[in-house]
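QA checklist item 7 of 12: single-chain prediction sanity check.
[x] sequence parsed
[x] length recorded as 140
[x] structure emitted
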Amino acid sequence: MSGSSDLTPEDVKEILRLVDEAGLEEFELETPRFTLRYRRDEAASPRAEPARESPPPGASDGLVEITAPTVGNFYRAPAPEQAPYVEIGSAVEPDTQVCILEVMKLMSPVLAGVRGTIAQICRADGEPVQYGDVLFRIAT
């Protein structure tokens, strides 16, 4: 990107290209001088919406899988020195944040999407994940 504090049209095109490559449906960049918002589909729900609202077909043992809504690095806590959002045995509601996925310094919250109890944590903290990878299993 350019060395000045203002974005050029080429800078915006590059940002949007990277957002598209990452498969993000929504992106927001906020600086003290401006805010850039991008949404692939106006009908799309915000990234903070639940990862799953109902059990996936074929879920075993009655467990609901929370899957990665995008590629990124999986983080269980808001910061390295802070406690994880949830642990095995934690009760969750549909709007309970269970982790964050980080892509290019953009942090996207992942919500439980169902009421239940965390039965399994399927990824290690800091592990890269792909779209659709199982992050947690919840007993409902």
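[x] summary fact logged: The chain has a mean pLDDT of 79.
[ ] second reviewer sign-off
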